[in-house]
Amino acid sequence: MVALARSRRAPPQAEQASAFADDVLSGLRTNPKRVPAKYFYDGAGSLLFERITELPEYYPTRCEMQILREHARDIAKLVPAGAALVEFGSGSSKKARIMLRALPKLAAYVPVDICGEMIEQEAIELRLDFSGLQVLPVTADITHKFALPPGAMVAPVRVGFFPGSTIGNFEPFEAAAFLRNAARILGSNATLIVGVDLIKPVDVLNAAYNDAAGITAKFNLNLLVRINRELRGTFKLDTFEHHAFYNRERHRIEMHLASLKRQKVKVAGETIDFRAGETIHTENSYKYSIASLGALARGAGWRPAGVWTDEREYFSIQAFTLAG
Ligand code: AVJ
Q1: What's the CA-to-centroid distance between 166 and ligand 1, angstroms?
Q2: Residue 324 has what pLDDT?
Q3: Is the pTM of this model over 0.85?
Q4: Which residue CA neighbors atom 5 of ligand 1 most closely?
Q5: DSSP states along 202-265
């Protein structure tokens, strides 16, 4: 029986809370106003996102799961025996489970996520379902530097797994920085498997972020609920509206929260003024072509090693390798 290494400690609560406060306040002081999309994922936000993935209009998760299921054996060929699989922004680990079933010789699975509660709970279940696999969760913000646990460092090679088109939340220059950082963290001979949403007809994109059931709107507005609760915010939810649209020039879905009237809101004791119609930009979800992501990855030192898509070419799994 393999000893289960203890999970790494989350950063002190105070430190996390102040990063949230600093980022929200500085984002609300600027014009146009913005808050980083990573703050959607508190407990309630993570659950709302899970519901989004089941919506009829939200194709990405279903497409990606289908690609993974259909090509798991092929993709698994890029993961050597004894490797550690490091998942960036793992959330519920639903996609990793497909990979794990195809990877019986994996040494360790390292889910890294900003939502500690979620991955600690998942780790317990994964250990039951994959006996003999070391599950080493790391609570960390993947946009910051973080260390891998010793159990991942002793493996002869590390494979990064970054599904969900989370890379689309980054500005292209940030995505390039992330890819460079992933190369550094994973080390020589690493492989990186990335799930990326593709450019497609605008109607399909707009519908995916404006679902009829209003779950995406709830997910977006939950950011204000979180600010109210954690930062003594006074946002009135019925005075803000969910806006989501495809920006063709920049190949991205933008999500905003629009103030329905001129108003003042307090956050952490500070007064924030809103004009009628003024928005808080809460998310970008960039869409790539296979070629455009390939170019970005090459610029960050990675070599394309495989591409898999669904039949409509809505979504892609792209693999890259590092030389020496
Ligand atoms: C988790 C970043 C892939 O951009 O599609 C879903 C988040 N936002 N609906 C996306 C999201 C609104 C999602 N990602």
Answers
A1: 7
A2: 62
A3: yes
A4: 285
A5: HHHHHHHTS-TT-HHHHHHHHHHHHHHHHS-----GGGEEEEEEEETTTTEEEEEEEESS-EEE
How far is the centre of ligand 1, averaged over its atoms, from the C-alpha of 164 (Å)?
8
* Residue 52 Cβ < 6 Å to ligand 1: yes
Q: How far apart are CA 281 and CA 75, in angstroms?
A: 36
Find out whether the beta carbon of 168 lies less than 6 Å from any atom of ligand 1.
yes
Alpha carbon of 41 to ligand 1 centroid (Å): 11
Query: Per-10-residue mean pLDDT for the chain, 324 residues long?
Result: 38 68 98 97 92 98 98 97 95 91 96 88 95 94 91 97 97 97 95 98 98 98 98 98 98 99 98 98 98 98 98 98 82
Q: 84 CA to middle of ligand 1, Å?
A: 27
Q: CA-CA distance, 178 to 161, in Å (whole number)?
A: 13
